[in-house]
Structure formats: C-alpha cells, structure tokens
Amino acid sequence: MRNIITQIARVLVGILFIISGLIKLNDPLGFSYKLEEYFNANVLNMEFLIPMALIIACFVVIFEIVLGVMLLIGFKTKFTLWSLLGMIVFFTFLTFYSWYFDKVKDCGCFGDALKLTPFESFIKDLILTALILILFFNQKYIKPLYGKSALNLTVFAAYSLCLLMAYYVLQHLPIIDFRAYKVGNNIQKGMEIPEGAPKSEYEMVFIYKINGVDTEISYADVMSNKVPENAEFVDRKDKVIVEGYIPPIHDFSIEKDGANYVETILEEPKVVLLITYDLNKSKEKGMKKLEELNQKAKAKGYEVIGLTASDANLRDAFQKQFNLTFDYYFCDPTTLKTIVRANPGIVVLEKGTIVQKVHFNDIDKVILK
User: Where are the transmembrane segments (predicted)?
Assistant: First the structure.
C-alpha cells in the first residue's frame, strides 16, 4: 500500500513540476517580471536581485522541469527529493507571504495560463509539500526506470531542450500566448464590462501615524471619534472589500498631452504599434530597425505610433538618436510588458483586433497588406 501511495505521489509531483515549469519556460520574461515584483522594496525588499531577475527566472524554471523528469525516471533520488523539498518550502513561503500580507495578487506559478489567488496558490503548495514529504519518507520505493547511461542521457536531453526553448522564446516570442493581448483578440471587446456584471465594493479607510506606525482606521471609527489623541493623519484611501468583475483588458491607454486616443486609434483600419516599454532598457539592435518599418507601413496606409512609459525628454532623445519620425504616446509599463514580450516589439492592428505580434528580431516578418 505504501508503495502504491508513493508511486501515485511520484507521478503527480513529477508531472505537476514539469507542466508548471514548461508554462513558465514558455514565457521566462513574464516570470522574471513576477520575480521583480517579489524583489520590490514593498514586498521582500531585495531590490539588489532585480537586475538578475531574468537569469534567476530561467534557472528556476529549468531546474523545476529537470527535477520533475529526474523524479519520474528515478535519477539520483536523494538529491532530487532534497531539491524538491527545498524548492517547495521556498515557494510555500512566497505564497503564504503573498496571501497573508496581501502583497502580490498572483504568484505566477502557472504563468498567464492559469491565474490562482495567493490563497489558492498557498493551498496548492501545502498539498505539494505533503506529497513531497510522502516521497521523502518513502525513498526506498523510488527505483530507477532503466540503466545509468540511459538515465544520464535523459536528464542531459531534458536540460538541453530546456536551454534551447529558453533561448528561442527570448529571441522571438512565447510559443503559446496565454494573455488577453494574443493574436486574434479584439482590444475593445476585451475592455467591455458585461451588463449586470458584479461591481466592486469599497470601504473608506483613513491612515494615521500612531507611535510612528501607519495604522488603518475605519470610517466608522473616525466618525465615532475613536482616533487616538496622538494620531497624525497621513492619507485616505478606498479599500476594496468585494472584488467586482475586472475585464481581461482594463489598463490599456494611448495618451499624449493629457488626452487619451484609445478610441480613435482602435477604430483605424490599419495600425502598427511600435512598443518600447522602457527606452533606457531597449535593445539598440531593435531600435535601429523601427524607422525602416515605419516608412514601409506608412507607404501602405498604416497609422504608425510608438507606445512607451518613458518620459518626454527621453522620448525626444531617442527620436533624435535613431532618427525616428513617428510620435510616441504614453501607456502604463506593466500593460506594455504584457502586450508583447520584447523591447521593442511590434503589434499590428486592424480596427482594434491584433493580427500580428513580432519580436524585433523578426521585424522582417511583419506582414503589411
């Protein structure tokens, strides 16, 4: 009976680690953005790791996949189980921290393919921890599936294929796009709120500094004069107590000089968006290719605009440096990083419908009708 339970746990843990890892390996940039969110000063306060987020993301997801393979084939059982245990303890801490302190809304465990709340992620990790502990205390039942040479070859092949996949998606775009901005989706429809959809409910909360600590005090307590005498008012905010319906696309904007041009641009029959979420972090190789595409697109009747979160001075400087003749508009950096995993990246629209997305390495593959 113990052997049967162990083998079931072995298969479940191995497959789950492989699937979870492959989903994140399909989009390592997206996972690196999630790690940056964790490293932020407001969460783990480990900002020194932010420049290394992409390297850490690639290492973690490849290690996750290879560990899953190693468990399934029975390769170096002791090392595999200790590694699995260490990894799940770390993940469980992160998901608990996200849930208990309400710091990160989505752990990124399954990328954009499956969104889990912090509490759901924490429960998932607790279950995985239990399964890995079953394996840990029943190691004698985990036997290699075949000979040593074949085991070594399998692990080497898994590792090599993961490296190739990581390189490919970083040089191009994710193989499968799970985001709301994938090819074929209409941005206007993604922004719509269905009739009768539940609305968010808010509670007014006041923040006072009490003995040097920012403390939330409810509106009712403030009105009842229950604020301590030594309290110093800091701020007022609306706290969500019931989350309403949030459309898949809710933060898309095209702003310039205080005006939003979303409706105008999305009604255009042919548009090319040249997206560079951060000009300072953009690749020079890609920036040099944008003006040539701009001229080709305009010759075929396309409206061409740039989208960035960089400030006006930086936009002007880059336009002069690379002789760019298209205008840059502002959009939230998180939104731009979500739209296309390239900096710069190219998105082709037809009346708000995304018909093509391209990494700057594939700019020659942009189809202009």
Answer: 7-25, 48-72, 79-101, 121-138, 150-170
Tokens for 314, please give them: 């930086």
Q: Which residue has the tokens 């029975």?
A: 74
Q: How far is CA 291 from CA 18, 19, 338, in A?
A: 42, 40, 23
Q: Which residue has the tokens 């752990």?
A: 107
211 with 230: CB under 8 angstroms?
yes
Give the C-alpha separation, 296 to 290, whole Å: 10
Q: How far apart are CA 66 and CA 154, in angstroms?
A: 10
Tokens of 351: 């009346």
* pLDDT for 175: 96
DSSP code for 362: G
DSSP string, 288-313: HHHHHHHHHHHHTT-EEEEEESS-HH
Whole-model pTM? 0.85
CB 248 within 8 A of CB 180: yes
From residue 239, alpha-carbon distances to 137, 202, 215, 297 in Å are 45, 5, 14, 46
Task: Give the number of C-alpha atoms closer than 13 A to the C-alpha of residue 86, restricted to the C-beta side.
Answer: 10
For residues 362 and 365, give the distance between their C-alpha atoms in angstroms, rounded to a whole number: 5
pLDDT of residue 41: 63
Tell me the two tokens of residue 301: 């009747």
What CA–CA distance (Å, rounded) separates 168 from 362? Answer: 12
Over the chain (369 residues), the average pLDDT of each successive run of 10 is 93 95 95 88 81 94 96 96 94 84 71 79 92 94 93 97 97 95 96 86 84 83 84 82 84 92 95 96 95 96 96 93 95 95 97 97 95
Cα–Cα distance between 142 and 155 in angstroms, integer? Answer: 17
User: Between vectors from CA 27 to CA 25 and to CA 33, what angle results, nearest 5°?
Assistant: 115
Where are any strands of DSSP class E within 243-335? 255-256, 259-260, 271-275, 303-308, 328-330
Structural domains of the chain ordered from first start: 2-171 (no CATH), 201-242 (no CATH), 250-365 (3.40.30.10)
- Between CA 126 and CA 128 the distance in angstroms is 5
